[in-house]
Amino acid sequence: MYAVIKSGGKQHRVSVGETLKVELLKANVGDTLKIEDVLMVVNGADIKIGEPLVAGASVEAEVVSHGRGKKVRIVKHRRRKHYHKEQGHRQWFTELNIKAINA
């Protein structure tokens, strides 16, 4: 059984017991979240697709940690113009452990 959820403008395929990183959520470590933005639920041959969300479906997840991702380097360069600029960015994330999928 798995579900497709929407978080932080992205879609994630999740199943019970897996851990995933989503964009930063305002929740404390150890809190249980109920994610109701469920786009699709698949249980064997039974497939429920939302229009745009599946009615009555939710995913329960526990907040494991918060952190920052790997550094992404941004380089801008114009040849023969003496222009060179480098910048870095580290995105904040929340790590979630999926506890249950309620369809």
Kindly describe this structure:
This protein has a four-stranded antiparallel β-sheet, with no helix packed on it. It has a four-stranded antiparallel β-sheet with strand order 3-10-7-4, with no helix packed on it. Strands 8-9 form a two-stranded antiparallel sheet. The protein has one domain. It is mainly β and about 100 residues long. It has strands at about 1-5, 10-15, 20-25, 30-35, 40-45, 45-50, 60-70, 70-80, 85-90, 90-100. The model has no long low-confidence stretch (mean pLDDT about 95). GO terms for molecular function: rRNA binding; structural constituent of ribosome. Pfam families: Ribosomal_L21p. This is Large ribosomal subunit protein bL21. Part of the 50S ribosomal subunit. Contacts protein L20.
Order of helices and strands: EEEEEEEEEE
Q: Specify the structural class.
A: mainly beta
Alpha carbon gyration radius? 18 Å
Helix content: under 10%
In terms of DSSP E residues, the strand content is over 45%
C-alpha termini separation: 10 Å
What is the tally of beta strands?
A: 10
- Count, helices: 0
The largest sheet has its strands arranged as 2-1-5-6
Task: Tell me the major beta sheet.
Answer: 4 strands, antiparallel
